[in-house]
Design goal:
This protein is of the alpha+beta class. It has helices at about 10-20, 30-50, 70-85, 115-130, 140-150, 160-165, 175-185, 190-200, 205-210, 220-240, 295, 315-325, 350-360, 375-385, 395-400, 420-430; strands at about 100-105, 135-140, 200, 245-250, 260-265, 285-290, 305-310, 340, 365, 390, 400-405, 415. The strands form 2 sheets. Strands 1-7-6-5-2-4-3 form a 7-stranded mixed sheet. The chain has a 5-stranded mixed sheet with strand order 9-8-10-11-12, with helices on both faces. Helix 1 (about 10-20) runs antiparallel to helix 2. The longest helix has 22 residues, at about 30-50. The chain is elongated, with a radius of gyration of 33 Å.
């Protein structure tokens, strides 16, 4: 019964409940009564359904529809990220904890070698995405905790103060200090001592300077962290990326599972071009060492040292999309290489044979789904979608055993023998 497709489930529940009722006393028989009831219920339910749909189609909360243009940009970014991960020996893994944007190294290895590689990966990805100048801030949670201890922060307030320090990339020191003192009850002199440290940033020379600091050098945790950072900078220099790394004592990354080196990549602000809006997006990549996390979930509690990084793909998508919008750049939504066209009517069969030959040769091709499309319409389609080549077949070409190849960009045309068409297209595509 076709009406099944028109009624929602609860309408049919109401209908069945009416049909299964016993006949009323005034009816001559059950068939007549049930038919009348069925007709009445169907009429009322259909009318209500037509007047007011019982559902609204919308995207789930926290999500959005993506246009073909958005998908092209996202696929390119993810392809670059994944290819970099694979270049460094990554194996695919699909779990709620580790995603395409994550790269993690698990196992017992010599100090700072995996950590340095994670920072190298981060530099490769951010350089490849061409987002502009960037800087990777580096610190160590042992240095953070040691700093709090020597400054006089009560251990019970470590995490609370850590979350305040984390805001220094968005707030001025005086505002962070006010929060720590007025809202979190930290003594003003303790806050001032913290301020002496968290406003320091630099390279390996700052690491050496902290080794000589009269307070920090007395803390065992801090010394361990500084020793690892010194070794890390040696490896970063060998990797050729030390100039992209800054030892920043304000970096705290308040997540409790970090146990050692922590890092966060930020884009450096460039002068805003005319008509562009400023893009304040925060960090675009981050990570660190978390040696105790995996052991918490291991059935026997075995410790598994880990270090990793996460790429902020959503923020990067936003940056790229906004810059393309500001510059008026167009995005190709298909990878079509060749369009099969004709200037005459009744050439559908020849176009179908020709496009099948291209497909079978691995060439990405398409055509208009019309029997007799106008040539101008076909050429305009190629220009609007960015298809680089058009092959044209008509009466003259069929008679002479040739196919015309047209460059969409230059509008130049050349006749090629039919049997040489695939080889010529492949040659042109390889040169472009």
């Amino acid at each position: 019964m076709p009406l099944l497709g028109l009624l929602p489930r609860r309408a049919w529940a109401a209908l069945l409940s009416q049909l299964l009722r016993p006949p009323c006393a005034s009816c001559t028989g059950p068939v007549r009564c049930q038919s009348q009831v069925a007709e009445a219920v169907l009429t009322s339910q259909l009318k209500a359904h037509q007047e007011k749909p019982n559902f609204i189609i919308k995207t789930p909360k926290g999500t959005r529809d993506l246009s073909p243009q958005h998908m092209v940009v996202r696929e390119k970014i993810l392809d670059l990220v994944i290819s970099c991960f694979k270049r460094h020996g990554a194996k695919g893994m699909d779990t709620p904890a580790f995603e395409l944007k994550d790269f993690d190294i698990a196992g017992q290895f010599d100090p700072m070698i995996p950590d340095a590689e994670c920072l190298k990966i981060m530099c490769e990805i951010l350089s490849g995405l061409q987002l502009g100048d960037f800087l990777i801030k580096v610190n160590d949670r042992r240095i953070v905790d040691g700093m709090f201890a020597v400054c006089g922060v009560p251990e019970s307030k470590f995490r609370a103060i850590c979350s305040s320090i984390d805001k220094l990339d968005k707030m001025a020191w005086k505002d962070v200090r006010h929060e720590m003192v007025a809202k979190k009850g930290l003594a003003p002199e303790v806050a001032d001592r913290i301020g002496d440290y968290v406003q320091c940033h630099g390279g390996v020379s700052l690491v050496e300077q902290m080794f000589q600091d009269p307070r920090l050098s007395q803390n065992k945790q801090a010394l361990e962290g500084l020793g690892d950072l010194k070794l890390l900078f040696e490896y970063l220099t060998l990797f050729g990326i030390a100039d992209k790394i800054s030892f920043d004592l304000s970096l705290a990354r308040g997540l409790d599972y970090y146990t050692g080196v922590i890092y966060e990549a930020v884009l450096l602000q460039t002068p805003i071009q005319a008509g562009e809006d400023p893009l304040n997006v925060g960090s675009v990549a981050a990570g660190g060492r978390y040696d105790g996390l995996v052991g918490m979930f291991h059935p026997k509690g075995h410790k598994v040292p880990c270090v990793g990084l996460s790429i902020g793909v959503e923020r990067i998508f936003y940056i790229v999309e906004q810059r393309m919008k500001n510059k008026g750049e167009k995005v190709r939504t298909t990878e079509t290489q060749v369009f099969v066209a004709t200037p005459q009517k009744n050439f559908l069969q020849e176009r179908l044979k020709l496009i099948a030959e291209l497909w079978d040769s691995g060439i990405k091709a398409e055509m208009l789904y019309k029997n007799n499309p106008k040539l101008l319409t076909q050429l305009h389609y190629c220009e609007s979608t960015g298809i680089p080549l058009v092959v044209i077949i008509g009466e003259q070409e069929l008679k002479e055993g040739v196919i015309k190849i047209r460059s969409v960009a230059s509008r130049e045309e050349v006749a090629i023998k039919r049997e040489n068409l695939v080889a010529e297209i492949q040659k042109r595509l390889s040169e472009s």
